[in-house]
Amino acid sequence: MPNHLSNTLAPLLFITTFLLALFTILAPTNLFSDRVALLELNGNGTALAASAANSTRLRARALGREGVRVLPLAPPKMYKIKKAKRKVASTLVTTSSSPSNASSTSSASLESVVIRFGPLGACYQIGKSSDLTCQSPSFTPIFTPVYEHITSVPSTLLETLPDQFPLAPTALFLGTVLTSIALLTSVLASLPFHLKKLAVFEKRRVSFSRISLYSGAVGAGMGLITTITWRLQLGSAVDKFQTAAKVAKVSYHVSLGSAFNQLWAAWSLGAVAVVLTALSSW
Hints:
This protein is an alpha+beta fold. 52% of the residues lie in helices and 13% in strands. It is built from nine helices and six strands; from the N terminus they run αβαβαβββαααααβα. It is elongated.
């Protein structure tokens, strides 16, 4: 393959890899809150009174995890990022305490729950008429505060979900940073330096190409390893949740999100860009 073709395609592939990885990192806490996630829980259940025992149980699980030391949880930092477009009519629910209205009061407590997990945190929505609430982005997100807000999902189900991402978000971020370095040096290596003021870069074209090769290879490797680790961890969580949901006989469903499609595409394109860069370097 001619070098000029490799020099043209490699930067395009690197920028695609970078953008896909960046969008995945920022979702759902900053971008695409209703579309992109690593893991998504949804379903309907009966709202229960908040249980101090369940709250303590979830905290103990996060704090007592083997090999991971987590500081005591502070009040969760949440913020609203999306207003509901419509409100459910409240006139359908009566407030009378007579026995004839018992079934209507019971149905009124039925609520939908959606939780979306991302690399930097999670977003949740309780009821279709409520706001979408997200955690403040963090490279070490802890999801226990989110679970404490979800009173309609039994704690036995929530315990099957991840309580935190201690290292993977940082690894994914570093892989993305290395990809951005590969992108920049790939562009510098492919530019025609005809002007005298830019002639100094002509002598360093090979160096730029090799920096692009090494940083792109390490970045794609880190990103791919992180993606595989997440896929195994969250895939196991999905299986455990579905088994627990069948035992509890509740209508909640957990599935892997579309973020994995973006990550697989990103690092596959990054690997192709590395190969093209290698062909143009030697």
